[in-house]
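Quick start: what a row looks like.
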Amino acid sequence: MRSSVSIVKVNNYNEEEVGMGLRQAIDLIGGIENFVKSGDLVLLKPNLLYGKPPEKAVTTHPSIIKGIIQIVREAGGIPFIGDSPSIGGLDRAAEKAGIKKVADETKCPLMEFNKPVLSEKGRGRFFKQLEIDEKVLKADVVINLPKWKTHGMMLLTLGVKNLFGCIPGPRKALWHLKAGDDRKVFAQVLVDLYQIVQPSLTILDGILGMEGNGPGSGRPIPLGLILASRDSLSVDQIACDLLRIPRESLMTNRVAFEQGMGKEKIEVVGEAIEEVKISHFQFPPPSQPDWNLPGFLKKALKNALTSKPVVEKEICDACNLCVNICPPKTLKRKGEDFVLDYGKCIRCFVCQEICPSGAITIQPGWALKFMERLKGKGER
C-alpha cells in the first residue's frame, strides 16, 4: 500500500488555527474515520521528555493535544494521554508543559507508563519482544504525536524515536546500556519498537521545532508545519527531505531500509516539498562517523572519533540529574566538579538530553572536527 504524508502550513499555536490545520492534515490522508472508530480506546502519545514551558519547544504543544482530543471524540473515540517522562513524573511534566491544563479542561485522562509487560513475540525483526507499558498494548488505536527536534545521539527525534517513551522509565536506561555506543543497535531497538506498537496515525508538531543542542536544551525555531501519515517512517523520511539531508542520515531510516521497510514511494499531499523546504537549521555535531575502521583502531581513537558530553560549570545548577540517570554510571560528582570517564561513556547523551539548564553540550573529538572541516571545504 502506497504511503501518504500530508504537509500543512500552520504559523502559530492559536487553538483555532491548529484545529483547522490538524483537520486538514488528517483529511488529506483519508479522514479521522480511517483511523478511529466509535468506542475505540485511543492513546495520544506526545513527546513529554520532561516539564518545560511550551515556548521552549521541548514537548508537544498543548494546542496540538487539545485539537486531536476534540477530533478523536468527534469520531466516537475515547482518548487518553500517556507517556513516561525521563524526569519528574507525568503529572509534573504535563503541568509545566501546559498539557495537564488541557487534560483537566477536556476531562481527558493522563496515564503514566509504569507497568511494563512483555509484548507479543515476533513483531520485531531483531528484538522479538520488548517491555512496553500495558496501557500501550491495551489501546485500540495509538496516535503518535512527536515534536520536531534535534537529538544528540540519533540526529533527530521524530516519529519513530518518539515511541521510545512507550518503554517505562527505568527500562529505557537498560536499553541504552544494551546498545552501548552503537547507534545502529539503538536504532534497531527503535525500529523494532515501532513495529510492535504500530501507531495508527502519526502527527508531527513542527509549528515550532528545536535545533542545535536538542532534545532538551536546543533553540526553538519556527518551522510552521504539521505533517501527518499512517506511517511514522514516512513522516521521518519527508522531514529529512524538508531539512535537505539524505534520508539515510537518520539512523532509524537506514536500519529500516536495510530490512526492506520504508522503500515504497511516498505520496506527498498538501504543500509541495519544494515550496516549504527549510533553508536554515542547525544540527547537533555528529556523534560518530561511519568509517569502516578496524575495531581495535576505533577503540584506541574513541575520544578523537566521537562526540562527547561536556559539562559547562558556569551554567550548571548542580541538580545532579545527569549523575543519577547516567546508564553506565560513568558520570560522577566530586565537590564542585564533574568527572566523566570517557573511556566507559557509551555516548547515549542521556545526560545532555535531560539537563534542565542546558549545561551539558555535545562536543566533537579532534578527528571528527578535522573531518568535518575537510568536508566543509570540499562542499564550497
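That is the whole record. The chain has a mean pLDDT of 89. Residues 90 and 112 are 6 Å apart (CA to CA).
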